[in-house]
Amino acid sequence: MPNRDDWQMDALCRGNHAHLFFPPSTFERKAERGRREMKAKAMCGVCPVVQRCSEHAVAIREPYGIWGGLTEVERRDMAVPS
Q: How many Å apart are CA 16 and CA 82, to the nearest integer?
Protein backbone atom coordinates (compact mmCIF):
# COMPACT_ATOMS: atom_id res chain seq x y z
CA MET A 1 0.00 0.00 0.00
CA PRO A 2 1.57 3.33 -0.99
CA ASN A 3 2.26 5.95 1.64
CA ARG A 4 0.30 9.24 1.41
CA ASP A 5 3.58 11.12 1.25
CA ASP A 6 5.16 9.05 -1.54
CA TRP A 7 4.95 12.14 -3.77
CA GLN A 8 7.88 13.57 -1.82
CA MET A 9 10.19 11.03 -3.46
CA ASP A 10 9.53 12.74 -6.83
CA ALA A 11 10.04 16.31 -5.59
CA LEU A 12 12.79 18.23 -7.35
CA CYS A 13 13.76 19.91 -4.08
CA ARG A 14 14.95 16.64 -2.57
CA GLY A 15 18.61 16.66 -1.80
CA ASN A 16 20.88 19.59 -1.19
CA HIS A 17 18.45 22.45 -1.87
CA ALA A 18 17.23 23.35 1.62
CA HIS A 19 19.16 26.62 1.46
CA LEU A 20 16.74 27.80 -1.24
CA PHE A 21 13.52 26.72 0.43
CA PHE A 22 14.19 27.79 4.00
CA PRO A 23 15.66 31.04 5.35
CA PRO A 24 19.16 30.98 6.81
CA SER A 25 19.66 30.96 10.56
CA THR A 26 21.36 34.34 10.27
CA PHE A 27 20.00 37.69 9.07
CA GLU A 28 18.76 37.75 5.47
CA ARG A 29 18.29 41.04 3.63
CA LYS A 30 15.02 41.57 1.79
CA ALA A 31 16.73 41.48 -1.63
CA GLU A 32 18.56 38.26 -0.70
CA ARG A 33 15.29 36.69 0.44
CA GLY A 34 13.64 37.72 -2.82
CA ARG A 35 16.39 36.09 -4.91
CA ARG A 36 16.33 32.92 -2.81
CA GLU A 37 12.54 32.64 -3.02
CA MET A 38 12.59 33.31 -6.78
CA LYS A 39 15.06 30.44 -7.31
CA ALA A 40 13.01 28.10 -5.12
CA LYS A 41 9.78 29.01 -6.89
CA ALA A 42 11.45 28.45 -10.28
CA MET A 43 12.32 24.91 -9.19
CA CYS A 44 8.75 24.41 -7.96
CA GLY A 45 7.46 25.68 -11.29
CA VAL A 46 8.85 22.66 -13.13
CA CYS A 47 8.37 20.10 -10.34
CA PRO A 48 6.07 17.18 -11.16
CA VAL A 49 4.53 17.16 -7.67
CA VAL A 50 4.08 20.90 -7.08
CA GLN A 51 0.30 20.64 -6.67
CA ARG A 52 0.46 17.83 -4.14
CA CYS A 53 3.21 19.65 -2.27
CA SER A 54 1.26 22.89 -1.96
CA GLU A 55 -1.91 21.03 -0.94
CA HIS A 56 0.03 19.17 1.74
CA ALA A 57 1.65 22.33 3.11
CA VAL A 58 -1.66 24.20 3.27
CA ALA A 59 -3.45 21.23 4.84
CA ILE A 60 -0.91 20.82 7.64
CA ARG A 61 -0.41 24.57 7.99
CA GLU A 62 3.34 24.26 7.41
CA PRO A 63 4.76 27.40 9.06
CA TYR A 64 8.20 27.48 7.43
CA GLY A 65 9.79 27.54 4.01
CA ILE A 66 8.58 27.41 0.45
CA TRP A 67 6.36 24.46 -0.36
CA GLY A 68 4.62 23.93 -3.67
CA GLY A 69 5.82 27.30 -4.90
CA LEU A 70 4.20 29.15 -2.00
CA THR A 71 5.80 31.12 0.81
CA GLU A 72 4.61 31.01 4.41
CA VAL A 73 2.53 34.16 3.89
CA GLU A 74 1.00 32.90 0.63
CA ARG A 75 0.00 29.61 2.27
CA ARG A 76 -1.44 31.36 5.30
CA ASP A 77 -3.54 33.55 3.00
CA MET A 78 -4.87 30.42 1.25
CA ALA A 79 -5.64 28.43 4.39
CA VAL A 80 -9.24 28.02 5.37
CA PRO A 81 -9.89 29.33 8.88
CA SER A 82 -10.51 26.57 11.39
A: 35
